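Re: the multi-chain job from yesterday

Posting the exact lines I submitted so nobody has to dig through the queue logs.
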Amino acid sequence: MIPSLRRIGAMILRHLYILRGSWPRLVEMAYWPVVNMVVWGFTSQFFASHSDWVSKAAGVLIGAVLLWDVMFRGNLGVSLSFLEEMWSRNLGHLAVSPLRPWELVAAMLSMSLIRTVIGVLPATLLAIPMYHFSLFALGPPLLLFWVSLMATGWAIGLGVAALVLRFGLGAESLAWVLVFALAPVAGIYYPVSVLPGWLQAVAWAFPPAHVFEGMRALMFGQPFPIDRLMHAVALNVLYLGITGAVFLRTFHIARRRGLLMGSGE
Amino acid sequence: MIESAIEATRLCKNFGGVCAVDDVSFSVETGSITALLGGNGAGKTTTLSMLLGVLLPCSGQVRVLGEDMIAHRYRVLPRMNFSSPYVDLPHRLTVRENLTVYGRLYAVEHLKTRIAALADQLDIKGFLDKPVGRLSAGQKTRVALAKALLNKPALLLLDEPTASLDPDTADWVRTWLNDYRRESGATILLASHNMAEVERICDQVMIMKAGRIVDQGPPVDLIARFGRATLEEVFLDIARGKDRET
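And the result, structure tokens for all chains:
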């Protein structure tokens, strides 16, 4: 086996052992997406009979909340995988092992994918019998939306991991809150056009606005907005490149400042 | 075989204007057990961290097992290992799971057999399937040693290997380390506050004070040079600034 793949696999195994050993963690991962979906499902049912806009595309709010959870869980999957090493004071052992920093990043991204599937899939499946809404009806574009939002979540998660590495566990709450800074301009539940002009410019500078507009376009029966998706891809490459480079650079700074051995609770 | 397992040349490390290691040069002979002694803040852990490559020196060079540790640390890391009471293994994972993960990181062949052999040698068989967080300090030390020995390292760096252990377990660890060195020919460098331990198992001693190596040599030579009965007395002389006899 390629040595890098074996080491990445070892790190994934380390996190799978934790999940296997704790069913409450597994339940917790699926819990919030399901609760969110149920609440927004009933809200959608109410609006369907009171809002012309929602009635034209039943499930637009459920689809939005499920895809938002992809981004939220994507971010949390990366940052929690890193925080696990900090909480267990294990980073020093990893830093003196043959594991390269980029392999650690690859393992965190892989774990994020696994955590997101475990977290969001049950809610997605439950929406079918509960509200007769299938996210899978979006077809192949769903995969592109998923990947795009996941990549944005990864970019935020890597940024959080870099901040935690640099400033210690005092910065850990950012793992849960930083992603919400994007929520007002992501156009999750409303079109970007409702935002003031200057804020629309801000919204278009981030990938989620393009993805959620694309999702709505499809659900309202419009053609697949390939230009929106291309914008999202380009922005994701940019942000993921920046935060990935920042994380690796922070790792190097941590070596200079002696932060790797003394990290932890 | 490389004559010196470690060669440090003019190592310096400052943290925000405070000099932690000041122009330190030394070499550690292959196959030896060498101790790095010094009081709190003397620079032992900083020196160990630079040897491990997790801390970059401000200046100077480190060669480990014949490789430049600053430029090519990933060529050397698979052949060395490390243990410290201040760096933990994941508490929620069992001992076996921890050893499996690290075994894969170090590309250990026939991993199950290796874990079984270490479990036998280090007497950890009874709690292989227990989470590390539920072990006693002595058990954790043996598990940390098992992790450090998984890849049969040619160089083993140990930070206070017997800290917070009861005398019986500490004695057992010392005996085991000595046996491992004899059987494998590995080089061991340890940082310790325990003078009796160092006197008993180490071939060479380097004493650090305020970031510098102030004296070094075999324990018996140091004791003779200072005209003292034990290494602890030598250490106290150095710590309190008293000169040696000659």
